[in-house]
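ligand=PMV
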Amino acid sequence: MNIEASAPGKCILFGEHAVVFGQPAVAVAIEQRIHVSIQPIEGEDWTLEGTKLNPRKHPHLKMLRRLLWPRKDGAPALSIEIHGDIPRASGLGSSAALSVAASAALRAARGRWVIESEQGRVWAEGYSSEIEDTDAYTGENSGIRADIYAKKERQLLGNEALDLDECSMIGHSVEASAQGGRASPMDASTCAHGGVILLSDQIESDNDYLYQRQLEMSDGMRTWELHDLGVPKGGEEVYLVIGNTGVHAPTADQVAKVAKAIQDEPERMKEIETIGLIARRGIEALKNGDYEAVGRAMTENQVMLRGLGVSCHELDDLVRAAAPSSLGAKLTGAGGGGCMVALTRNPEMTSEAIKNAGGKALISKFGNQGMRLETPDCEPFWSPQSSSS
Ligand code: PMV
């Protein structure tokens, strides 16, 4: 008995850092994925790649267990295997992809009890932006709606049990808990839904609106409105080439650096606003399928990111190397190291140029499938015995 799910990594087309100040940002799912496979085992201890799991070293799995797999409700111990081709800790969303894929596998391995009422289907368990009596950010009742659970009628299985809103919300909560309470929902939503995801401080258009996410941070509540742009027309003719500098630079340090720069010189907020304007122009170009203009907006965004001090000479070298064969290129994610991304119609040429300049290169189609269950006909491993947890 084995259940496997996978989710893609992501890169950011426009708006990193400025999104922290409420400006719009766009992320796109990449071809590289993480696969999580689970199997029930005897005993109390979980295993990861065959050795006993230490929850302190794996905060993502610890939080997932709390949200979806409480021992006290009868959940069995699990053996977990993880494989994939997303480089870790390089700004490509590997931890969000892991969290989203693992939440999909755990949900499929638990199923979802529902009631079919005249008004439609009602969940007896689960997390959703439309449900207020369960909370993925505290995980206090392991997703069970006690009154409804007592009357449960039908169990959804396999793909029918999965929900993108739920997996992305769990992914965001798990990321926030692993990162000391600070995480935007950009990674988790892009890894769950795939395609192209737009984040803003306001609803940009009703057509592609997904949901709102909120997170209480030490310095106040953050609110994001998320939209799913799918894969805009013409997206099948362009490619992303990701160049990895191999330089490690923690996201939190780069975010703190920008915060300090703005605090020291408040007039630099103009630069953040300019990134927002560039992002808006890029979004319009994307919607129109004008990838030349998308590339120009990316390159302009890079100029602003350099000005903010979050690029580095390794990133600049790779961006410069990619430029002649691409439509646009910029760092992706927090910067200071990690990866850059180029939008190109000549992926092989751009990839060669990046390698010649000392980077590792990955080629990806533009906009890829989100999370998916690799074992769609699976049976649940267990169902919660308690209705009042
Ligand atoms: O380095 P990444 O992929 O985690 O991206 C960070 C993006 C920032 O805008 C710098 C921070 C954020 O929370 O959005």
